[in-house]
Amino acid sequence: MSGHATYQPQNGFMRWLDRRLPIASLVYSSFVAYPTPRNLNYWWTFGGILAIMLAIQMVTGIVLAMHYTPHVDFAFKSVESIMRDVNYGWLLRYVHANGASMFFAAAYIHMFRGMYYGSYKEPREVLWILGVILLLLMIATGFMGYVLPWGQMSFWAATVITNLFSAIPLVGESVVTWLWGGYAVGNPTLQRFYSLHYLLPFVIAGVVVLHIWALHVVGQNNPTGIEPKTDKDTVPFTPYATIKDSFFMALFFIVFAWFVFYMPNFMGHADNYIPANPSVTPAHIVPEWYYLPFYAILRAIPDKLMGVMALVASIVILAFVPWLDTSRVRSARYRPLYRQFFWVFVIVCIGLGWLGGKPAEGGYVIAARILTFYYFAHFLLILPLLGIFEKTKPLPNSITESVLREGVPIGASAPRPTSVVSR
Amino acid sequence: MTFQRFLPALVVAAGLLALAGKPAAAQGQEHAHEQPEPPALKWSFAGPFGKFDRAQLQRGFKVYREVCANCHSLSFVAFRNLAEPGGPGFSMGQAQAVAGEYKIKDGPNEQGEMFERPGRLADYFPAPFPNEQAARAANGGAYPPDMSVIAKARTYERGFPRFLMDVVTQYQEQGVDYITALLKGYEKAPEGMQMAPGMTYNKYFPGHGIAMPPPISDGQVTYDDGTPGTVDQYARDVSAFLAWTAEPHLEARKRLGFQVVIFLLVLSGLLYFTKKKVWHEVQLHPEEMSKKS
């Protein structure tokens, strides 16, 4: 994975600086010369998209915080004042609110890509676990952010989610009172959520640094799932990955802009435009769409404590995937059975998401139980057993061989057959 | 990835979805019986190039002022907003005149006393009741909600697959459609349906028993522009007005959105061809390329 050019400072100042703080060298080796597999497809662009989304959320969030008032009597009003009186406040808020949705959408695609191509397998276990930690941090941050506008859904989501901690045996009630800062969700709750909502993105940024560090130690996985063997198998990050990422990022931003400018409230809930009212419970309390699969799992279990444990387990189990998947072959490309089960799993997750938005009654609960069972079975039964019984397809000898033999990854221009032959 | 290879997975998935879908279908029918869906109306402010109809907003404002304002507050809207671009298009003088007609409680003055003065542009629409309790006492126990963002705070369920189609059609006028339908939805209660005391039957209100009596009747408000004063017209106009109070920067938002999307489309095009050019070599001579860098 070496062999690409190293950084040579061009002028006197940079040479001087590089001997004292080789920051330019670090940037150069990480984002310019860094060898990236030549066969990465567009599913690999979501890592870069996620980094940009985090930056957008932090910048818009910091400006929003300048105008927001974390107090139960003024929070809703201050958000409306941002929407009406702050210059481009409506843009800041809609970018931030829809940005959260786009952030989660990108994260889920990023994770599914990792699952499909076995990116969690040896030696990328720590990289993957850091990703699971990032997901947990994102979930916490997003939840607290949703509480801040102090609408009906904010208040009741805060009530429902904090109440989950009361399921803890013996100390549950005390823990909830401690979390609330009182005997109900109130001003102390709002203020601490605001404080933490501001803090956690910086923690996320820190873990992102670790995530990227780990990535640069082990190198990127690729659609074949086999490690690059020669320089032929890789291309330098710049310009190849940068331009490819930029192109797909622009497409991603078109979707993002579509929601921000034309459908800004599509992914929100109408009830959150009603100021929080502790004495009126909404007909259906639903979280944001990106929590719906987990919410469905929570409600599928009749027992509260078990439901909460299932909810936590549904996320934490991801950290064990590197060891639950026993297959020696990484990529689903060469795993005909796993590929099918992967898509079933994707559909199950979408199904759980759909059920999470439905009232917990009748057939919905039964369906949610079946899908919850399948969700865990995928990790605890299917992944371990497939590795033992699945007959995998032969792997290519190298990335370059796979590119030349099997054609070109999606989005890359086709090689000219004549020139391939002439070589 | 042929279709046949995916067949087993599809069968499993279809089975699971069929299982999950059954109760949903039943649920949907049940609801349809209970509560009709508000008809989707044509709005000037819908779609990517939507703009408010100034005359309609002015008419809607008149309906609000003469009818709704007797019980409903509009606390996030200031008089100055009436003259701001993208709104009803009143002149600064007209907005000032409107403000002057309201009495605003101010103070304390140098004597330490609260006093009343005529409204100014910077003032917000004063609420009809001093507090929630007074509002409830005057309205048979019900609290008339603030109307500033009500067009975004009301909706009806679109359901699958329409909610996905809405992303493409940009349909997001559920709130205004619902409010219009509600204002026109007062009917005789069906046979055998007992209304609780103080409640009126409304076809579109969840549960049908609404504490607000029919708020408006034909001819109640006389329009200055000669538009016929029907309940249908009042309902549309006041709903459009509420769409503006809920989203006063809607026009600026859609205008900027168009520019941003055009910019991104051009940028994507340029990046696509740049990417193609950059990657062209890799496909041709991978080994030479890696030597070059």
Any guess at the CATH architecture of chain A?
Up-down Bundle
Please summarize the sheet with the most strands of chain A: 2 strands, antiparallel
* N-to-C order of helices and strands of chain B: HHHEEHHHHEEHHH
Kindly state the percentage of residues in helix of chain B.
40-55%
What value does the Rg of chain A take, in angstroms?
24 Å
Stated plainly, the CATH topology of the largest domain in chain B is called: Cytochrome Bc1 Complex, Chain D, domain 2
Summed up, the helix count of chain A is: 17
Describe the fold and architecture.
- The complex is a heterodimer of chains A (423) and B (293).
- With 423 residues, chain A is an all-alpha fold.
- In chain A, 64% of the residues lie in helices and 1% in strands.
- Chain A has 17 helices and two strands.
- In chain A, α5 (89-116) runs antiparallel to α6.
- Chain A is globular.
- By secondary structure, chain B is mainly alpha-helical.
- Chain B folds into two domains: 27-77 and 125-248, Cytochrome c-like domain (Cytochrome Bc1 Complex, Chain D, domain 2), CATH 1.10.760.10; 257-292.
- In chain B, the strands form two sheets. Chain B has a two-stranded antiparallel sheet.
- In chain B, α2 (54-66) crosses α8 (231-246), α7 (174-184) runs antiparallel to α8 (231-246) and α9 crosses α10.
- The radius of gyration of chain B is 27 Å and the shape is globular.
- Chain B starts with a helix and ends with a helix.
- Residues 19-33 and 286-293 of chain B have low confidence and may be disordered.
